[in-house]
Known about the structure:
Elements: H1 3-21, E1 24-29, E2 32-37, E3 42-46, H2 53-81
Antiparallel strand pairs: 1-2, 2-3
Amino acid sequence: MSFFDKAKQMKQMLDLKKQLESKSIKIERDGITVVVDGKLEIIELILNPELSVETQARKLKSIINDANKQMQVKMAQEMKGMGLGF
């Protein structure tokens, strides 16, 4: 791979990174809502006051993990679509 090919691929990766950072995944379960962005950061969190603290903690962990997994799958699909799959 030539230097120019590598530079082109790097630009594609940076463009993809910017594009993915603007996307988000929203998961709602049992009145708890989590929104995760393309940087895998939580940008919105809504708890359900009707649930116990223990139940909220358990469900929240599951929801956050699922949101992160879904975003990672979305990122991998975007990378594959651009020919950047690893």
